[in-house]
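Write out structure tokens for Transcriptional regulator.
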Amino acid sequence: MPLNQKRSECPISCSLDIWGDKWSLLIIRDLINHKKCTYGDFLKSGEGIATNILASRLQLLEENELIEKLNHPESKAKVLYQLTYKGIDLLPILVEIHLWAEKYFDIPKDLKERLKAVKKDKETAVRTLMKDLKKDLDSSKEKE
């Protein structure tokens, strides 16, 4: 939903209008894990997003300034997508979703291992992850 259109003044409703569907959060997840991605990278994700839905979600996330496009260093026909500071600020929400899912679902062992550090000191782990993501964003902005 574009920035100007709101169903209500409820902060949860307004937020969910932007990133509340599963595809948007999975795109954000992929960008957190891989820093920068191409359209093709998202299509290869295990969940199998349809190309029309991917295009729609990327446009919505870009219009709402959660992601931005960059020129691809190797191909003029491709673009890279990366999170903005606003998008990076969703990291604590994704961490909470991971912790909730670990409690109620079987999750891969490697993810379970990574969550151990988060559970020991969530605040520090989240702060460190966000700092790293913002540092990567700052360095990519310096290159522009």
